[in-house]
UniProtKB/TrEMBL annotation:
This is DNA primase. It comes from Paramecium sonneborni. Belongs to the eukaryotic-type primase small subunit family. It comes from the Eukaryota. The keyword Chloroplast does not apply. GO terms for molecular function: DNA-directed RNA polymerase activity; metal ion binding. GO terms for biological process: DNA replication, synthesis of primer. Its EC number is 2.7.7.-. The lineage of its organism: Eukaryota, Sar, Alveolata, Ciliophora, Intramacronucleata. It is an enzyme of class 2 (transferase).
Amino acid sequence: MDDFDQIQFEKNLFIYYKHLFPIQMIVEWLTYAKDNQPEKKYFSRREFSFEKNIGGETIYQRYQQFQNANGLQQFLLENNSLDQQSSLIKYDIGAVFDKCPKKGEKLKALEKEIVIDIDMDAYDEVRTCCQGAKICEKCWKFLQVACEILRPALFQDFGLEHVLAVYSGRRGIHLWVCDSHIRKSTNEVRSAIIGYLNINIGNADAEEIIKEVKQDKIEYLHPSIQRAYFIAQPYFRQVILTDQNSLKIDTVKKKILTILKQAKILNSKLENIIKESNDSVQIWETICSQDSERLDIAKLQIILMCLYPRLDAHVSTTINHLLKGPFSIHPKTQRVCVPFNLKNSSQFNPLDAPTLPNIIKELAQIPDDQKKRESDKYVFPFLGKQIGCLQPYFQLFEDFISRYNKPKIS
């Protein structure tokens, strides 16, 4: 953010964790009461990790565990101390171990949600509006398409029911797959699931794309690839040809030429237009005008090359991988890592996500007598639901938790 004030940021973080961070909701979520009602120590075997700034130095604290919400809140407040020049920059969620995690002890990770992580910079090859960590409404459409493709794969192909979608606060999304059998899955199962979702099309060499999609006709392809194509196809003209003008990019042109050559579609006139033109619409319309039995497959390969989800696979395939939790504050943007509705992902705009300065301003309007601590010196009233810009995200989170813990009617 412009004119970033580190001291004010750390002051605001203390206030946020004191009054606005949804500790009870986080604990209720990670307790999975429906599955673990008799198991009183389930939550206390979950690893939390924290990134701290102490006197300008970054410190990482792993293997932290808490008995309940009060213990977590005490830790958050004790470690956000202006007097000690200490602030918690972010918190990560780790695995559930066979015993309460402590540094130096031999531990066995038993459970962890599979988290699907997609970062916008994975699309740098095909986006022209922004690069790196920067995002805008135009390039965010890549992640909207990714959600559209992944949703039926998760809910229909794998029969999953409980997927929490969370904005990372800067340039990406995290999909927390929370179904009980998924949390207990081995690294081999996790790798197989991600291997199914992460087909080698997006962000791959042209030869790998051709190898992955090696049929002559679309109807011969795996149903998941067909479905991904039919989902992505309506977005291609607006996102790739118009918003991004992606086909003018040299690396994209090279891949297209390889795909067309392998399909025996490429001729000298078409090759010259692709090489010389900087107009994606012209390039695409020229490709589409070719007369070839393999044209449909070539078009599919090009469209999925540009729009298929680009997963950060290593985040998802190991049970003990740490990942930033919901309702963190991203230190680079000061945006809150809020959940969004995966079934209506096109309505979420990351640039509208609440920011720390704005929610602190709104909190200042609440009378001081409502902010006083309770009997425990570390327990302060949760005022997050009185902050208008946070309310819909808390509601989404509460609804997700309620759906998970709702008993099934047999």
